[in-house]
Amino acid sequence: MDDEQSRIDALRRKQSEIGNHVIDEYFSGHISRRNFLRAGSVAGISIPVLSFLAACGPAPAPSTPSGSSSVKIKRGGHAAVGCLPPATALDPLKVDDEGGLLLLSQVGEFLSWSGSSLVLQPRVAQSWSSSSDAKTWTFKIRKGITFHDGTPLTAKDVAATINLHADPANGSNALSVFKGVLAAGAATAVDDVTLRVELEAASGNFPYLLSSDNYNLIILPANYGGDFSKTFNSCGPFRVTSYQTGQRMSVQRNATYWDKNFIPPLDTVDYDFYTDDQSRILALQGKTVQIVSHFAASDGQALFKDPNVKIIDSRSANHRQVHMRNDMEPFTDKRVRQAMALALNRPDLVQGLLNGKAQVANDSPFFKVYPSTNTSVAQREQNLTKAKQLLQAAGKGSGFTVQLSTWRGFEIPDYAQLIQSSAKKIGVTINLNIVDEATYYGNAVFGQSIWLDSLMGITDYGHRAVPNVFLGAPLVSDGPWNAAHFKNSTYDGLVAQYVATADLSTQRRIAGQIETLLLDETPIIFAYNYDATGATLPNIGNVRMTGDFQLDLRSAGFTS
Amino acid sequence: MSTASVPVARPRRVDARRSALAERLTLLLHSPTFLIGAVIVLFWIVCAIGNTHLTPYDPLATNPLGKLRGPSPQHLLGTDSLGRDELSRVIAGARGILVVAPLATVLGTAVGTALGLVTGYFGGLVDESLMRLVDAFLAVPVVVVGLVALVALGPSTITVILVIGVVFAPIIARTVRAAVLSERDKEYIQAARLRRERTPYILFVELLPNVMGPILVEFTVRLGYAIFTIATLSFLGFGIQPPAPDWGLSIYENYVYITGGYWWPVLFPAIAIASLVVGVNLVSDAISQVLDR
Amino acid sequence: MARFLIRRIAFAVITLWLLSVLVFLGAHVLPGDVGRRILGAFASPRAVANLDRQLGVDKPLPVQYLNWLSGAVRFNFGSSLAYRQPVSSLLGPALLNSLKLAAVAFVIVVPLGVVGGVIAALNRGRPLDRIITVSGLSGTVVPEFVSGIVLILLLGIVIRLFPVTATAPPGSGALTQLYYLILPALPLVLVLFGYIARIARAGMIDALDADYTRTAYLKGLSRRTVIWRHVLRNALLPTIAVIATQTGYLIGGLVVIETIFNYHGIGQLLFTAAQQKDFPLIQATVMVIGVVYLVATLLADITYSLLNPRIRLGGAR
Q1: End-to-end distance of chain B based on CA atoms, in angstroms?
Q2: Assembly ipTM
Q3: So what's the pLDDT on residue A342?
Q4: For chain B: N or C, fewer Cβ within 10 A?
Q5: Which residues are registered as beta bridge partners of A534?
Q6: C287-to-A161, B149, C27, C79, C91 alpha-carbon distances in Å
Q7: Proportion of chain B in helix, strand, coil states, percent, rounded to 5
């Protein structure tokens, strides 16, 4: 015991202030083992140290989540993955869709990988640490990584990649994450293996913003000329052999991949593009593909009961936001918004709509997957009587008619129809306006977008390993995605505090305040967050995926 | 002012027409093809009119926990992916298509007839250029035009009616024009011209009744196609919109479940579409046979 | 003959030109700012205006039309907004794929439909005739998306006779590709069978009732000889020419079939382009579909006139 304690002390001396704080919280039992691993990885504590400390701690070791156990794989072979077609050319700056980001994750490599457990695994970055105010972050860049074209990777390449995305002139999709945190030129290469990033505002979860979670951020060479969709030059586990727009991407294993333990067993992989769920499911059942990167849990009825199919899934923060225009009748009165939220039967949505592959959410982006979520705030349940009373009190006792706009994809039209029939129970008539995706998003700026201008709408949000983006863009007063037109300075202040905070218990305290405020105001209904679900044939093993539907095929292959 | 000869000349022609009509109607009522078709179509018309009065449940009432249940005494045709009663949806689904398809076809027929009358009657450059335009228009399949137009204008019932109507108009115009060409040099038209009747009068009072036959046949044929096309557009997601219990839409919403063995929410609407189109086609066949005699 | 040909081709060219005008105007009904679509929400208004100028979409419509047309005749339709590569590089392979699928459908359905029609005509009024006519009619009225799904379920999942996608693995030989295309072709076959059988039946009946057939019988020729020598030839060659006009329908059907079977043809390309409002791509795709149809009908007309002297001599009407 003494021996162990002295080893712990020795390890602790090497950790940053934030790191030590995380360790304190763990040992005092404030956070679970799982959350400790996660928070520790953010604070830059290396994985072996974390594992050692976790084993010494008070929390019992969790059972391994299903599907993540490793099986024996034989080397070689060719696999086909059925996935969504990228909506645009494969440009790391521009990709903002699931099809595109999956492909980037196969060819590219990130500073770190945000896997299904939400624990950051070091990749290009070997380790990281921050200053005590969480405004300066330093990353140690791994030696011996080469790009597919043979050029060695240094911290200069990483700095250039970050600055490329941070510069508003380039219109990167990652700006939605970097806004207010990181400016152009913020990243500098101190030497070949050290990267320093100076933030505009403190960010306690910053490593997540540079991880695979920020899916645009695959590391590109410093002299990148904007031609990724021709060269596909990055340093990921696979290199592209051919790319046919709208049809498929073919890759072969990257034999010079930096992590010798994870050189993919598969010789070649095809990513075949299937536009809709039905054809992806059919392709798997017809054995045309061995892996399906995504099927909507709502559509998966056939696969869930098929004994010849293995489901792979990952808890995630994928969710739908039902916004109500806070500045337009009848939703100017928060009682009306609360009534709408009270009309929904969330457990039924989770079971009926998503076949149980989801979790009930509580009208804020603090989903149960996040360690910082304050679970002491009571869950909102269906309560039709209270909803009717609230409408009465707001002078809307006789009901009203509104239009709900959304787009045709996944379970969204079904969700819209269920909201419609729930609202009917409290005397509210909802007319549906269901359009195609491009029409719904329009030009994605206020005044030119159904999404941002509609009285009420359902918008799909992809997974993020930390809630920062969800707390910001769709909810803060000047947020570019604030479809609810919610303007609340108290809220803005709380979010700024939350983002700057690095230690978990403070994060959780502020989270509780935010959750309570959002429950009261209900600018947006968050009814559920659903798991990322994919599937494989039984003879394929070790396929892992992230909440963002990125696949990790580095150890996947045919079972022997 | 019309001349004295008109009242004498016209009743005779109308009489002859009327007795021919009676004869054809009798023929029609004795045609098994017509009767079978008419019964099917009538069945769906009754469903469309009765709508929710005939359905065992509210076709829009969702029950997510009772979704995709197979046919049973409670739900004779099972339930769909949102737990709605399939039988109720199939019955109620008749209304949408039986309003939209005929309206679209009427629109197409009206516009097409007018176009066909004008181009056929005048001939010459007007005819030539309009027919080339029609050719150009017809070079693109209906579904393709419909799809592109609905994407541009946004899907709504009105848009569907307009788009199908506009697409059908040139096709109908062509048929009407052909019929007009065979009529326009006949005696009664020349007589009307000699009487210096105004052109609209000649077109719509003299010419139109005599080309009604082909127009009627074309109308019924187009009606079948309209049902087919609207169902297809709904299936592609650009036709009638949720939560309407439309058949094509129901298939679109539920076909992803079919590989799991949940065939009922797809099969029954499919049977409904097919039977309605068969019914309309049988009626149309019978009418054209009778008129050809 | 030469006069007929010239006249017919001239008509086709005029029609084509009108089609290009219609397509161009149609695509410009689509709302949305092109520059904003390409650059995304985070780009500055100035950058958007610059790009609009570069692409020439700020010019008056007639100028834009002429620019587009002069490119289109050289098979240069500009760049796809979504994929940012030349439209022609997307269109070429898709068109080839669709033609393959259509060819497979035709190869199956034409002999089947013709034989069905002939058998029906030879058994006119008897039960066999009824069966062929009614089953043909039923096939014609069932939408492809319905028959397609049922066929996938039966032949692809329940008994694994065919693969459920239409695209063969890359590098497959012609036979494998053909094997993959049979299932997707079947719904098209179902719809076309009734139509072709009907035309063939009508042609046969006309020929059976024609004077020359009667003359042949009177000459004492056997029924078999009369049918093989006189009836079939006269009945079927025009029928086959008429079938070519079905390409229009076929392409419409491809939109649905290619969506269900995830086949990378022109129908799927159009469907995704429409969803993404990628209007250079929509324009080009619709234009190419129109051209294919016009060429097919032109060929059909010419064949028909070669086979049927009355049309050739009687002029265009």
Answers
A1: 38
A2: 0.81
A3: 97
A4: N
A5: A312
A6: 42, 15, 11, 15, 11
A7: 80, 0, 20
User: In this structure, what DSSP letter does residue A81 have?
Assistant: E
- d(CA A145, CA A142) in angstroms, rounded, equals 7
d(CA C249, CA A16) in angstroms, rounded, equals 70
- C-alpha A532/C-alpha A278 separation (Å) is 17
Closest residue in B to A424 (Cα–Cα): B61
- Pairing relation of β-strands A358-360 and A428-435? unpaired
Which are the contacts of B21, defined by CB distance < 8 A and separation ≥ 6? none
Residue C176 forms contact with A (CB below 8 Å): no
Of A270, A437, A445, the CB nearest to C41: A445
Q: What is the pLDDT of residue B16?
A: 62
In chain B, what residues touch A278 (CB-CB under 8 Å)?
255-256, 259
Alpha-carbon distances, residue A264 vs A106, A261, A558 (angstroms) = 11, 9, 11
Q: Which residues of A touch B243 (CB under 8 A)?
A: 417, 420, 432
DSSP structure class, residue A396: -
Three-state secondary structure call for residue C1: coil
- CB A545 within 8 Å of CB A63: no
Judge whether residue B1 has pLDDT over 70.
no
pLDDT category of residue A59 using cuts at 50, 70 and 90: very low
| Consecutive H or E run containing A378 | none
Give the span between the Cα atoms of A74 and A79, in whole angstroms. 13
Name the phi and psi angles at A139, rounded to 5.
Answer: -115, 135
Phi, psi angle pair for A323, to nearest 5°: -90, 150
H or E stretch including A299?
none
How many Cα atoms occupy the beta-carbon half-sphere of A335 within 13 Å? Answer: 12
Considering only CB atoms, B243 lies closest to which of A303, A351, A420, namely: A420
How far apart (Å, rounded) are the C-alpha atoms in residues B27 and B287? 9
Instruction: Kindly tell me the number of DSSP H helices and DSSP E strands found in chain A.
Output: 20, 22
Distance CA B171, CA B109 (A): 9
Report the candidate in A201, A202, A197 with the shortest Cα–Cα distance to residue A184.
A197
Cis peptide before A330 (omega within 30 of 0): yes
Strand partners, A128: A139
pLDDT tens-digit readout, B59-77: 999 998 889 999 999 999 9
Nearest Cα of chain A lies from the Cα of B260 at a distance, in angstroms, of 4
Phi and psi for A372 in degrees, rounded to 5? -80, -5
Alpha helices, H only, A30-97: 33-42, 47-56
C-beta pairs of A488-492 under 8 Å, 24+ apart in sequence: A488/A517, A488/A521, A490/A517, A491/A517, A491/A518, A491/A521
Secondary structure (H, E, C), A308-359: CCEEEEEEEEEEEEEEECCCCCCCCCHHHHHHHHHCCCHHHHHHHHCCCCEE
Q: How many CB atoms lie within 10 A of CB C52?
A: 18
Token pair listed for B264:
């009922």
